[in-house]
Amino acid sequence: MTLIQARGLVKAYGRTPALHGIDLDLAEGEILAVTGPSGSGKSTLLHCLAGILAPDAGEVHYDGRRLDTASEATRSRLRRSDFGVLFQFGMLVSELTAAENVALPLLLTGAGREESRETALTWLARLGVADVADALPGQMSGGQAQRCATARALVTEPRVLFADEPTGALDTLAGEELLGLVASLARERRMSVVLVTHNPVVAGYADRELVLLNGSVDPTGLGSTLRGAL
Question: Does residue 8 come out as left (phi exceeding 0), alpha (psi in the -120 to 50 range) or beta?
């Protein structure tokens, strides 16, 4: 089943083009790696697919519904429920503890405070950072903060995880552990993943690879098969 479909995506920042007519299909439970050199449009594509940015032209459909023309309120609601977003440097709220950061998406969807904290603690434990539950981001290591950010992205059990260079702030071992967990959850829960990376080892965790070059799909890299990392 196709969960996300994009057709003819075009995006520019002023006079600087970022995407040139991108087509993409993401199946339910599929891990898709979006790769390419710096400035090729990888993050812009992820932001358009997640409803963070609206393309200048083209369409994005999620679960059969038009996403790119949906209201900001609708797109925000999807990012609190159906979508999880994970950035390279976590972007935790500095004034909130780890547990409060992870619980935040649940609170925004109307869950109770105590229930949200218990669920947050469960996910922090699953990510191996239960010991920093009451620590502020400034009191954590970079690896701990990124694991907390991963817990926050997964706490609502999203149907789609958008991960933009999620291992960029981690050492090799920590990065592989994190990717192994994400891949395991994707298989277990039929969660789709859009994984932006420039690292071929990270891309090896995907089922398929979409290579961008100067804002267009590089036909020599489209549809690469999994490299068997798992």
Answer: left
